[in-house]
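Interim report, section 4.2 (structural modelling).
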Amino acid sequence: MEKEIKRIITVLAGICILFVSLVVYLTYFQIFKADKVKNSSYNKRLWINEEKILRGSIIDRNGKILAYSELNGETYARVYNYGSLYSHIIGYSYRDYGKSNLELYYNNVLLNTSESAALNELKNLVEPNSEGNTLKLTIDHHLQEYSRNQMKGKKGAIVAMNPSTGEIYAMVSLPDFNPSTLREDWGNIVEDENSPLLNRAISGLYQPGSTFKVVTAISALENNMYMEDYECTGTAVVDGYPLKDYDGKGHGTVNLNEALIYSCNPYFAETGIKLGIDRLSETAEKFLLNREIPFDLPVKKSLFPKKGNIGKTDVAAASIGQGKVLVTPLNMALIASGIANKGDIMKPVLVKEVISKDGKVIDSFKAEVISRATDIFTANELKNMMVDVVNKGTGKNARISNIRVAGKTGTAENPSGNDHAWFIGFAPADDPKIAIAVILEEEGSTGGQKAAPIARNIMLEALNTINN
Amino acid sequence: MLNRGVNYKIPRNLLFLFESIALFLMFMYYRNALDRSTIIYGLSLIFIIYISNLILSKIVSGDNYIFLIVTMLASIGIIMIYRINYEQGFKQIIWISLGIVLFFATYFIVKRIKGWEKLFLYYCLASVFLFLATLLLGRRFKGAINWISIGGISFQPTEIIKILAILMIASYYTNYDRFKEKKWGRYYLIGIMYLFVFFLFLQRDLGSVLIFCSLFLALQYIYDENRKLVLANIVVLMFSGLLGYVIFPHVRIRFETWINPWKYIDTIGYQITQSLFAISEGGFFGTGLGLGHPDFIPEVSKDFIFSAICEEMGILTGIGVIMLFMILVYRGFKISINQRNKFFRIVALGISILFGIQSFIIFGGVINMIPLTGITIPFVSYGGSSMLSSFIALGILQVASEELDIEED
Amino acid sequence: MFNILSLVFKYVFIVIIYMFIFSIIKLIYLDIKGIRPIPADSGTYLKLINRKDTLPFKVKEYYPLEDNVFLGRGNDNEIVIKDPYISKKHLRIVKDEDEYFLEDLKSANGTYVNGDRVMDVVKLNNGDRISVGQVEFLFVNKE
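Predicted structure of the assembly:
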């Protein structure tokens, strides 16, 4: 009898534990997972409001209409004026394919609804919601178009921005797709090996190659560990592993400035080893690697190897932007902006203003510093070095007559294919109005040769046409 | 120093209050489609529930809580069903009322008639008969052959077999000494249970397989003298579970959908992901009755009514439902411990375990804590067979909660 | 209009449901502690004084009293106690104009109220102790 009761209680305890675990799981789910789940574009609840509300338009910084909704019989249909040009910025909004990019992340703003259904009901009681808000972007349509044309036929990304406010003037990622013909192209788009749906500017991770040397240089300056006389023979042997310059010829005796101008790999590898991974990563993180970058769209985290068991070869590789270092093009543009902006990196912004249906500006962005990456003096020194890069060094193709342009080229070795061609820079050097990062994926050519001229053209165009 | 009497009035009245407000809200929701008969039916249900609880507390000497808890569960269920689908709500009212009638009927019949523990053979035969009938006459519904349709009335034989199985197991262990003497007597039960599981597998009713196995395992663990047999059983079941996973693709699919439903969101994962959407939409307090979209979930009134409850009435209500089941199971176990008649003790245990395991499996399934199986929530889900058989089981449990005569052997 | 109601009621529902759950838990808790729930509308009953587990037969904690209650060993009594020292029909408690009277029905071992043997009829007062067979009750009359 006794045993029986004990066993009965055991079974009861077992069942109670099962129930308690249900409650725990349910609570856990609600607290931690619910929000992410709710925002999946498969959730029809995101759609129910659509039918009755005129979705807000999206316009560029000068008021040009990029996307809007028009009445098509009973329902609203979305019109994308410029097709693929804004595919990675605005994205698309379709019942059958869900929403992406700004159409997704600013869904509530575009519909003038709030997250909570209850709040919406209350608001509807006061005044029925019929029209959404307009998004005014920081994008300059002319520059966006110009930039895309510069890169036509290639793979990669461009980010052009204002270093002192963080406003993004142009963001291009190729290959892209046409949201207007999404339905017809869907099969091809999804199966395309080159991933046209991927926004390479914020979701593509690449090795930065020599463009990363600006970060290494800053780390060296701040820690007072830069070499005045280094004998560059074109090769350095690190832990038995040979590290070469691009042409392997050797630059002779160089200091930091010269090493940057000619992009001397052995110099920076030695400098990196001297600094050690801790100091290097500290600087890298001030330049936003390993950190979440706040933005109107989700940005992939750039990676820099941190403390731990990191061998010398890894450190050497990291100091020249190879090995385990991976960055997004946006991150590189922000690095350039930081140097341009006296060492302060501003928060990148895509949405300039939110305008209500009555024309009132109900929200506008405020420029915000997200990292004090370095001090004004170091930034200044780097700036001057980068001007030299363009005037005397690998960045000659970025020269603009009568304007001091600062820049750094990069040619990243790509383990699975051709090299990537990079260029980062800003202009005019003394009062920067535009900062840029350009990457040509698997270009098979140097940054100086292919990326620099594109950056130059875009910067010039920006300086000529953007005046606000 | 006698304290003020505690009484059943409070929960009974709370239930009444809840039902009234909810019904009022529902009438407002459907204000355009209301007609006289609906109002009458709705009010009658509240009435019936109130009166039954009242009657029960007067005439019955046993437990009163279980019926209270069950009627609260049924109320929550029916409000949700009614909100989702007018006609189903209507039918559910009928089922609940019938259920309550059956409850009382079962109570009186089981109490009056003695000798239930002697019918081992009959329980077996009836179950096998029903299984065969299902296989021969049954219709496939969503992959499982569950239903029999006779002359316009369709029902799920599995629901009846569940109760028969409990009675069978109880009668077996009550007369264990007699069975021990027979040649293979010790193994009768285990053999029959495997037969049942086999039938269920043929029917592709994986949820019921789980229920039967757990039920049998639990009761065997408590009552079988042959401890090695219990262990052997556990091992065999686990092994066959693994085997099932390897051999049968439809088992594998369930598992894969459970691990990552998002991958299959367009196909088999559609239901469970919609359920997750609903649950996350509600938050802790819900969106409010009528303000959510539980109808986005396919087949919501049956298995996924819990998700609908979480969406519109909040996770807190969902937790409340879980707690009610927990109390119900606890109560059932307490009843069984207090019962001196061995047959009814086992029966009470079996029924409590049944309620507990069944609700756990389906709750766990719809929130994606465990793989999804297609079974109903007792008392809450829409469906006649489930409702009626649950009330019958409850009636038997009610009998078991009273002081019964022990058979003088 | 409906929307506001629904928004308000969702909180109301949760409150009611949890009050329901807690009232049931409370009832069960008190049950475990040994205090049986009494029907609140009846203020008169017999409360068992002996410890229940010392008695070799079934007996309850409370027996509510109505107008006319028979107590004995036989099954046809309102209060059935299988005590061998209690007669088949042992005693009867009657309500007459708001007063309760106990009548011993010529039982073999007698009925004792407050220690005194009852010869035929005696009026019961709140707090009286009634002894019958091996059982002792407290007579409670709230009115």
